[in-house]
# Entry
Amino acid sequence: MTYNGFDILPSQASGSIKPWKVDIPQKELDNLRTLLELSEVAPPTYENSSLPARAREPGLGLRREWLVKAKEYWQCEFDWRRHEKHINSFPHFSVPIQDDDDDIGRSTTFDIHFVAFFSRRKDAIPILLLHGWPGSFLEFLPLLNMLRTEYYTADTLPYHLIVPSLPGYAFSSPPPLNQNFRPDDAARIFDNLACRVLGFESYMVQGGDLGGRIGRIMAAKHPACKALHLNTHPMPVPDLLKTTRSVQMTESERAGLERNNFFLHNGTGYAIEHATRPSTIGFVMSSNPLALLCWIGEKFLDWTDDEPSLETILESVTLYWVTRCASTSVWAYRQFYGPNADSHGSKKWHIPGQKPLGYSWFPKEINPIPRAWIETTGNLVFYKQHDKGGHFAAMERPRELWDDVEEFTSGVKDVFDG
# Structure
């Protein structure tokens, strides 16, 4: 397969990196279809049949009418092989990474999968693009496709773009069985990917959801991470602002804060389950593809601005099912929900010194918080509000997100010198 030079590794990259491609065994796809055929949709109830006042408002959960149609389409018409062909039109790689945690004297090897566009330019800036839950590397494919068809060639691309699968997601190794695994561990693994494996002296991170949290840890704790751009930023009101009588906010920020408060009171049930009973919900999601579709599909419907296509939702849910990552992907939640929860506002993760921070604000993000809050967590040098877009910014609004990343990066290039 020809990748127009985007697959050529930098000269200093480790020889342990191997080209890779997605090839799901047909037996897995046949089993999926059989399970769907045997699965029953729950009978109508008031809760699954009632409609909210407006079509895109959250109701009492997933609507039965939508699930019935989605199940039938997934079972009878959805073509994974067509999606797989498109997925494989991007360069994929796999590499073993030895992760040494000196704090507890542990050494573990992780096989990390990543998609990448490598530049042939000597001055290209490495950018790690990190996804969250219930996302995957698939989130960034619309953005990468736009870049290769409209923006750049491998000779002109000013960046190396690396899109890893987080540990426990898709084709990367799951967390170890004998001890806890935290976002700090993922941050260390990805710093190793950028520096020891790919051979970069410095890099930046763009991320949302869990990827954004991991990116913040990388910016806060790893010197080679020189800059951070985020499109999600969940945090409570900063202590510094609790006693301030008036914090300047735009009308859109006020509306965003109302959306944030609504989500905290009405949309976090799934997260509390992930945080407090990850074993149980892992069994539930892994027991039946229809159960997984309910749990993940609801988020794609509720957390987006314009409703994504059924093809897009089923592509993501199918990836989770065939890679058996539903139960291995919820490891981070117990750090972010419940007593003493960490957030972007946690002081231990404040970005030190003048290391630049950028933020893109989208109105249908589940936690669209005010600029003034974000400014308390680091050197915010870039901030832009958008009129459209939700939680999955790279998938929903790839052009807007990328334009922001480029504008942010062009303004902080000096931090990568030397």
Observations:
- The chain has 16 helices and nine strands.
- Strands lie at 18-20, 92-101, 106-117, 125-130, 159-164, 203-207, 225-230, 356-361, 379-385.
